[in-house]
Each structure stands twice: as C-alpha cells, then as structure tokens.
Write a structure and sequence with these properties.
Number of domains: 1
Structural class: mainly beta
CATH superfamily: monomeric porin ompg
CATH class: Mainly Beta
CATH architecture: Beta Barrel
CATH topology: Porin
Number of helices: 3
Strand order of the largest sheet: 1-2-3-5-6-7-8-9-10-13-14-15
Mean pLDDT: 84
Shape: globular
Distance between the termini: 38 Å
Largest sheet: 12 strands, antiparallel, barrel
Strand content: over 45%
Length: 298
Amino acid sequence: MRSTAVVLVVLWSGLASAQSAAPSGPAAGTDPGIAAPPGDTWDPGFVVIDRIDGSSRAGFEAAYLQPNSKLGDVSLLRFEAHARYVDPGTGVGAYTQVPFAYAHGGGSSGETITDFGDLEVGVVYAAKPVASVLALVVHAGVTVPTGERNAEAFIGTIENFVALPELYNSLPRAFTGKFGVSQTAHRGNVFARLDLGLDVNFDADQTTVANAIHVDAGLGATFGRLAAMLELENATVLDRTDASGTTVKGATMDALAVSLRGDAGAVLPYLAVTIPLEHDVSDVVDFVVTAGVDFKLR
C-alpha cells in the first residue's frame, strides 16, 4: 500500500508543480474548483475518494460487494444518495449524503438485514483555481443519528469498509464531525486530487468510537467525453482508551479503485472496481463493483 501511495502522491506533486508554467488569468471553467469546460480537458470528479468539489451535482450509486469465503453465503449491496450545491460566485455551498446497506443470508430461509445510515450534512468552500491549475476545497459536516442499531449498524459499517471516506456514516445513532481539505490539480487532460480528512465521533449508541483520519489520492486523464481514474482510499482508526484505562489499538484500511466516468451533457455516469489492500477489509470483501450517475444541477 505504501508504494502505491508514494506513486500517486509523487504524480500529484508533479502535476501540481505545473502551475509555474501555466498562463495567468481567470479560470477557464465556470465552477470554482473546475479548471476547464467539458471537452478534452474537462474535470469529471473522482468516484471513490472524497467526491466534494466546486461543482453542483446530485446523484445515486449502487455497489455489489463480493463477500470473502470467511463471511459465508451472503449477498451484500450498498447504496448511496448524495447532493451538493456550490455558488459559482462565492465558492460557498452545502452538501448531503447518506448510505443504505442490504445483506441477505444464503438459502431460502436466509435473514435479510437493511441499514439506513447516518445522514451527513455540511458546508463547502471551493476556492477559485490558481492559474487554472490548482484548486482548494474545504468541507465540514456532521452526521445526524438516523443510523440503526445492533446487527443493522454492523452490516452498514462493514459495507462502508470499501467506501472509506464514509466509514463512520453507519455508526449506530451517531453524531460524528466530518472535516476535509482537498487539493486538486488539472493540467491539460490530466487531473489529480489529494485529500486529508478527520472524523471525530461525539456520540454513538452504546459504544465508544475513536477518531479516524483519511489520506486519499487520485490520478486521472480524460479522453474526449470519457475519463479514466486510479484512486487510493484510506482510513486509519486511531488508538483509544476505554473506560477501564486499557488502550484499544486502532487499525488502518486501504483500498485501490479503477474507475471510469462519462460526460453525457447534464448526466455523468460512472463505474468503479475497488479492491481492498489490507487484511482487515479483504477478510470481509474480495472486491466491489460500483455503478452510479450524477446529474448537474447547473
């Protein structure tokens, strides 16, 4: 995992340094954080890592999770709805997203478990691009306790193992602060993104949850109206001390995704295949196939 992260960060850094060669002047795009209009140099947005940027979109996705044999004969599906609006003049906006998990045991008498996760709402600030190359995006939000308890919460959190930016969005009846800062870079038909995030759990039903940090990276290129991307997502749950004073060790989870996104005018369909890189996740899920669509709101 570390070698993959190093490669992505080095590539991102090289792209970001292109700002010194970029012409000065206003950004070519109409949205803060979007460096160019649709075409050979459009900025599609990533699929698996933090999706929040300066564009205004609403969308829905569905994911099939292939369970590891250790999990037995079970069907796992994950759904997510999301929306955001960012004012093109000020770069200030708001966003919301919520996951839904489905699990069904094997056999005719298998049990079905569903989990409506914690609704996340927040605010966004997308700075105007610097020299049409670099753009900064900051967001802060909170999950409200709509998530279910018991086995439902367990299934929802397990399925979030492959949607690591939303790892804490299925905790049982939880309030969690979600903070993130992202640097995006766009040069010609190549684009990149580096995310730093922090999840601070304030309260969850009958459980204590440590804070988590995220370091994500993505690199992509456009080919006409199609974009191909390589995305690395990460979540590190920090150590915590329980009520008895015992230190509970944290864990690190990583996953690598290959994704495609198309531009059909107001509609942006996408497809991704995600593979876990750590045993904490791969012992549960072998791979994930995600399909979704975003709709431009302006």
